[in-house]
Design brief:
- This protein has one domain: Jelly Rolls (Sandwich), CATH 2.60.120.
- The relative contact order is 0.37.
- It has 91 residues and is mainly β.
- The two termini are 18 Å apart.
- The longest helix is centred in the N-terminal third of the chain and has 4 residues.
- The radius of gyration is 12 Å and the shape is globular.
- It is 4% helix and 49% strand.
């Protein structure tokens, strides 16, 4: 996974999602707006993060690095059992 460009600043976060509350739209391919990157922070459990263009799959866990979402890159997530996570947006 890449890292955020150094020129970006955080500007908002989603609420904390669980396996029961993760929006359906996050489970299918979607993307951020132009110039908007994001970090997926898992605080409990595990989350599968998929990057459509490369076919990469990352198992995100609290002790590991956050998932980096590049601007306008199609991606999706799926809970791997009970999970708590949020998304932090940067621009």
């Amino acid at each position: 996974m890449r890292s955020l460009p150094p020129s970006l600043s955080p500007y908002r976060c989603t609420p904390v999602f669980t396996a029961d509350t993760v929006p359906k739209g996050l489970r299918r391919n979607h993307k951020t707006a132009a110039g908007v990157w994001a970090l997926i922070h898992v605080t409990e459990g595990a989350l599968l993060y998929r990057i459509a263009a490369t076919g990469e799959e990352h198992r995100l866990v609290p002790s590991g690095p956050p998932g980096v979402i590049e601007a306008e890159a199609l991606h999706s997530v799926d809970p791997l059992g009970p999970v708590r996570f949020y998304v932090e947006f940067w621009r």
